Amino acid sequence: MKCENCTKKECSKKQKNDNEQNVPLALLNSNDENEERNEFHRLANAKIFLSDCLACDNCITSDEAVRVFQQNQKELFHVLNLNKKCDTSKHKVVAVSVCPQSLPYFAAKFSVSVTEAAKKLCGFLKNLGVHYVFDTTIAADFSILESQKEFVQRYHHQNQEKHSIPMFASACPGWIQYAERVLSSLVTPHICTAKSPQQIMGSLVKGYFARQQNLLPDKIFHIIVAPCYDRKLEALREDFHAPVYNSQDVDCVLTSGEVFQIMEQRKVSLKEMADVAFDSLFGGIKEDELIRHDGRKSDGYLEHIFKHAAKELFDTEVKEIVYKVLKNKDFQEVTLEKDGETVLRFAAAYGFRNIQNMVLKLKKGKCSYHFVEVLACPGGCLNGKGQAQTEDGKPDKALLRQMEDVYAAVPVRLPETNTHVQKLYQEWLEGMDSVKVQESLHTKYSTEKLTAHHLDIKW
Ligand code: SF4
């Protein structure tokens, strides 16, 4: 079994048995899928599995592998221990930013609500010596708003620029990694340039927050708690590095499962963890009530962009999004009709099989979507491999169901209604369309396939 870029005889990734996403394409049986499969095999000359292809061990360089493995609890404790030593020149402010899709994991593990789980997690981290604990929802607000804006611009330019439409979502690093390193210029011009919430949080913490606290970026050690390992690789991207300070916007990513392991190693019971509200980027204010974005187990890019585009482009208020399930529950579409004509066609394509189908359609010039929310994990981010798996690497379906229930109970807020975001556009970013917005909230994609030396590693 080999990946498209793989030069090895035998892939070292462990194989999963009971996840339908890992069914090889060769087992799909409709005529249509067979046709796509054949084309795909010509393209890839191999059977491809999700677990092998997205951020796979054969697609990262030896240098990246070393730096990915450095992002673990040892690194966190190294920094926390230096903070206890007399040499203050080595002290750092430790800030942890938690993804909203990680909190349901702790809520399910503790059997409490998401808000209660957040307080326990924050209390635990502060007890270890962490100075600030933030929620990355504000970064997702920025990412969604910038994606909405870019979609409308691309829609207007679709006749002049052939890569404008479809626009693909940019929030999932597993997908971005695969697009850049395997598909390259076939899809990268279609990917929205808005940074992912993780990397916008990096800009907020090392840019805005550092300035507020009179700190240089390299004096902050910024950790993200995330549902997947792919985010560790994302944190290494060159455009998220400030050479002047030799500082990454995100220094270390720990998965939810890795943080839970620290809790287990320390044998701390839920009762022993203090209830501490999340910090805010805005001084003394505490984040008491957590909110989430609309959407299917993710940050809801499809829903937000669809409603925004319907209003901006067709003066239509969409109250509720109605999904039509296509080939499976992870491939769904949403359309807007106007005067009997379909004017907007969006899709959610989760998991490798659906991504591959969509890419093949694009290659054949048959992709009729204006926007596709692409996520590497079937079921979305709650199902990330850093939290929804048993210890032996199998999908933990019972845990996933619990996570989905607690996540659904979190109140929803529109990014447009976040007054902090509006204020930051003015005070930090110098306006809505400034150079600083481009620098802090947008990124570029590489169109060169990976040719570097590969290294054998396992997650
Ligand atoms: S879909 Fe999976 S790989 Fe992509 S960001 Fe979400 S958890 Fe990570």
What report would you give on this structure?
- This protein has about 450 residues and is α/β, with parallel strands linked by helices.
- The chain contains 16 helices and 13 strands.
- The strands form four sheets. Strands 3-13-12-11-10 form a five-stranded mixed beta sheet, with helices on both faces. Strands 2-1-4-7 form a four-stranded parallel beta sheet, with helices on both faces.
- A hairpin with a 2-residue loop joins strand 11 and strand 12.
- Helix 5 packs across helix 6 and helix 5 packs across helix 14.
- The longest helix has 20 residues.
- The radius of gyration is 22 Å and the shape is globular.
- The structure holds iron/sulfur cluster (SF4).
- It comes from Salvator merianae.
